[in-house]
Design goal:
The protein has 16 helices and 15 strands. By secondary structure, it is α/β, with parallel strands linked by helices. Helix 3 links the parallel strand 2 and strand 3. The structure holds nicotinamide-adenine-dinucleotide (NAD).
């Protein structure tokens, strides 16, 4: 049995078990050999899980990137420029979709219709019509769709979930969530297709899908209504000058965003050397006129269980980090990550000592969460993080999908189609709300009805 669907039905899990202990390996085909596909879903799977899975096909429209990707992943499987040919000839059990956001739906729908389980990178897709197409395809298929949300698997985010689930602050009533992208990472989204609404659905979808998924999962309810504001005030046409791309720009000395891709051998091999095939430029100017996404975003979301959320995303912060606060009937939780001036500040001397001891182990570090019950002193909950990807979250996500799919997870971190849909629908509703100036009901976007308690 090399299908993830079969056990999914038995376990009521979006994910299910592969053929562990059986003779055959899971046959995996991947479409989209860009940086995410060849590293996280390519090389890492070959290195960590070759005993239980094998790549049977790779597909990309760019033949140069396809060839480089194949070598980088370390597989001998055949390569294809056409997805249907790949799936028809190689008959994979699982298709992994890592193309750009706006065409995920094409491969998800074809993959399901051709009898494969499908694992897609976030976001599920970029608009409500494509989302409905995916929902319909999953309903007519007996196969399963997995959305690779990695943030849920960070031990820090899981601890927040555990505290809320266990009633640490009573009944949750409202959440404030602010995400800051810095002038390096934030800017990077404006350098390539992510800067075009038609390719990435704006950062409301491309980036915020992660944040909205966390919120949906923490709050454990579906979003019901969204009101949002957003603008483009910094990148795009707002720049004082612009060039064709960073490499050959006349303004490198005066532009604080100058980024020399030629210093990065990996990106040169993967992207620049293959521009000749499709004109995909990785170091476009941040100030080009065709950028049409928002660079400041703010939304209010009302959940079906009456929790209110205030959310904001900024894209040119001096530092990269986030903070979230949860208000409950019995107290408040404050959590944050990577805010430079809040590092370890709330730890007592005793805790700092323990932290120092822990940090003798190079592989772990501690991040604090503040729990403040009504009428009491606050306490610090220390979360042990690992230095590997996303505090150990990436490894946990892969293990769940490929090694322990049937294992019960008290935190329900596995994400399926409904999770993928509900997280993008908040961003899509936010976009629509900005255009209309009105609040947008989630139920108006697809045939999914928001539920007070997620299943
Ligand atoms: N979960 C995360 O933290 C995370 C991080 C990075 C990227 N991602 C997601 O992974 C996906 C890929 O990101 P990336 O940075 O590698 O993008 P990328 O643009 O570098 O790579 C996408 C690849 O898809 C190929 N492609 C595009 N259209 C195609 C088509 N019609 N048929 C076949 N191939 C096609 C491109 O040629 C390219 O090689 C995106 O959806 C992104 O949102 C997720």
């Amino acid at each position: 049995m090399t299908s993830i669907s079969m056990l999914a039905a038995a376990n009521l899990f979006p994910l299910s078990a592969f053929s562990f202990g059986k003779d055959t390996k899971l046959k995996v085909a991947l479409v989209g050999t860009g940086i995410r596909g060849i590293s996280f879903w390519g090389r890492r799977l070959v290195r960590e899980y070759s005993d239980i899975l094998e790549f049977v096909g790779l597909c990309d429209i760019n033949p140069g990137r396809l060839q480089f990707g194949k070598e980088y992943i370390g597989t001998n499987c055949p390569t294809y420029r056409n997805f249907e040919n790949m799936v028809g000839e190689t008959q994979p059990d699982l298709v992994i979709v890592t193309t750009k956001d706006s065409n995920h739906h094409e491969f998800i729908v074809k993959g399901l219709d051709m009898g494969c389980d499908v694992l897609t990178e976030k976001p599920l897709t970029t608009d409500e019509d494509k989302c409905q197409e995916i929902i319909d395809a999953e309903r007519r298929s007996d196969k399963k769709l997995i959305v690779g949300f990695n943030y849920r698997w960070s031990p820090y985010n899981t601890k927040i979930k555990e505290m809320i689930m266990n009633g640490a602050i009573g009944k949750l009533v409202s959440v404030d969530f602010n995400w800051m992208l810095n002038t390096y990472h934030g800017a990077s989204y404006f350098r390539r297709w992510h800067g075009l609404r038609q390719a990435g659905g704006t950062l409301w979808v491309h980036k915020s899908t992660h944040h909205f998924d966390l919120l949906n999962w923490w709050i454990d309810s579906d979003p019901e209504e969204v009101y949002a504001m957003g603008d483009l005030e910094f990148y795009g046409s707002n720049g004082k000058f612009r060039g064709e791309n960073c490499r050959n720009c006349a303004h490198t000395k005066e532009c604080e965003f100058y980024w020399d891709i030629t210093n990065n051998e990996h990106l040169m091999n993967l992207y620049v050397k293959n521009e000749q095939y499709d004109g995909y430029i990785r170091d476009n100017c941040l100030f080009r006129h065709d950028i049409n996404i928002y660079d400041k975003m703010s939304a209010q979301v009302k959940y079906k269980n009456n929790v209110y959320v205030n959310y904001s995303l900024t894209t040119y912060s001096p530092y990269e980090g986030w903070r979230v606060s949860f208000n409950g009937t019995e107290g408040r939780i404050e959590a944050w990550m990577d805010i430079p001036f809040m590092k370890k500040e709330n730890l007592s001397q005793d805790e700092l000592h323990k932290l120092e001891m822990d940090q003798n182990n190079d592989d772990v570090y501690i991040e604090p969460i503040i729990l403040h019950k009504l009428w009491k002193e606050h306490e610090t909950v220390n979360v042990k993080m690992e230095k590997s990807g996303h505090g150990g979250g990436d490894k946990r996500l892969h293990d769940k999908i490929f090694k322990n799919p049937a294992e019960t997870d008290p935190f329900n971190r596995a994400a399926g189609i409904r999770d993928g849909a509900m997280s993008i629908l908040i961003g899509i509703a936010a976009r629509n709300s900005i255009e209309s100036g009105e609040p947008v009901k989630i139920a108006s976007l697809t045939d999914l009805s928001p539920r007070a308690v997620r299943i």
